[in-house]
Amino acid sequence: MNTLKYEKIFAFSILLTTIFSINPWCRIPIGNLYLEWLTIFIIFFFLFYYIKQNHLFKAPEYRILSIYLVYVFIQIVRGVFIADNYWEYKQLIDGGFALLVPLLIYYFADPYRLSYIFRYWFKYAFVLLGFFYVWNLHQSSYCFYFAPVLFIGCFIPCIKGKWKYTILISVLVLLIIAPYARSQTIKAFMCLLMSLLILYKKHISTSLIKILHWGCYIITIVLLVLGLSGKYNVFDDIEKKDRFHSDFTQQNLNEDTRSTIYIEVLTSSIKNNYIIWGRSPARGNDSQTFGKIIEKQTNTGRLERHSNEVGSLNIFTWMGIIGVILYLFLFLRSSYLAVYKSNNFYIKIVGFYIAFRWLYSWIEDFNRFDIMNISLFAMVAMGYSEAIRNMSNVEFKKWINSFLPKRVL
């Protein structure tokens, strides 16, 4: 297979996925479900071809990733037998796609291929299509399209020329344009925090990065224990703010609160006895809050919600505690290698960001095959990549600039 042609088809497919994946928030949707699925199938075809050609599945550095993917395959096969109607088979495909996003780690661990994909995206999606989607998308949903901007925005001090100011302004717009859009605002803020850490890297010790890194994992465990024990619920204050902004959002009488999601997911797992193994990607959690609305649309007779805004809870529903542990180790392995086994400061900062995204997956992060998750696992792939970790600070800065076309316009 011609390598250059292969890379262009793959990059174009990522571009199409960017467009399709934000249709739920568009005034004028483009394409349809079957074209979206076809595009994702093409991406997976090339990914499996690449993995096979380079013998990566059995590579020791990707052992935890390979174990995770085997377990996902088992869950997808389970789903084939569990699903018993059109909607559940559709959910199986969508859930399977979401769970297979980490396949991109194999491909993106190659620094050349990662930079090529992003350079292609910035050449066409950011410059040519960006103006259309600024008009077409609701302002609180910009982050779902401009996820690569949030990716590269973590390295603003490394960027040269006009692109530095273009990316900085873009991140600031994402930060302030919709202050009530929690996820967009927090992710933009984290970009600026990462850039500040890089800007003042002379004053940032490796010990501090290690503390921040482990702190994200420890905070996750502590908050989960406190929440499950009923001693402290971190979402209480968040939900009060959500209600304060209810005039500006699309909330209704069945307000989507995180506490409600946690209660319904955990109650459903206990009631239906799928705590360990999960319910497969074909099924969701029992939901009194949303189930009646969804049942009217699907006519399945089941009061279930297939996926929620809290990403790690979807992993739990679909694959149980075993799936959550494997998903955790995908992040932990990457962040650990980035912080402890890298030759440059920038990858150590990336390790902290990866740990933060694990923490944030317990607050608000969608599980979908979309540009947001593609960008996330591009970052995770950087931690796995020995070639990127072995770069010097100078080499890394040069490489990051290769993500961007020579001209802004």
List the SSEs and their pairings.
Elements: H1 3-21, H2 33-53, H3 63-82, H4 86-99, H5 104-108, H6 111-126, H7 130-136, H8 142-145, H9 147-152, H10 162-176, H11 182-199, H12 206-229, H13 235-244, H14 258-272, E1 285-286, H15 291-298, E2 304-305, H16 311-340, H17 345-360, H18 371-384, H19 386-389, H20 393-401
Antiparallel strand pairs: 1-2
Helix pairs in contact: 1-2, 1-6, 3-4, 3-16, 10-11, 11-17, 12-16, 12-17, 16-17, 16-18, 17-18
What does this entry look like structurally?
This protein has about 400 residues and is an all-alpha fold. It has a domain of about 240 residues. Helices cover about 65% and strands about 0% of the residues. Helix 10 runs antiparallel to helix 11. The radius of gyration is 21 Å and the shape is globular. About 5% of the residues have low confidence.
List keywords for this structure.
globular; 409 residues; two-stranded antiparallel ribbon; single chain; mainly alpha
In short:
The chain is an all-alpha fold.
SS field, number of helical segments? 20
The main sheet comes to: 2 strands, antiparallel
- Class from helix and strand fractions: mainly alpha
Mean pLDDT: 88
Helicity range of the residues?
Answer: 55-70%
Using DSSP, what is the number of strands?
Answer: 2
Give me the Rg, rounded. 21 Å
In terms of DSSP E residues, the strand content is: under 5%
Uncertain residue ranges: 243-256
**What sort of overall outline do the alpha carbons produce when their principal axes are compared?**
globular
Helix/strand order, N-terminal first: HHHHHHHHHHHHHHEHEHHHHH
Measure the end-to-end span. 32 Å
How is the largest sheet built, in terms of strand order? 1-2
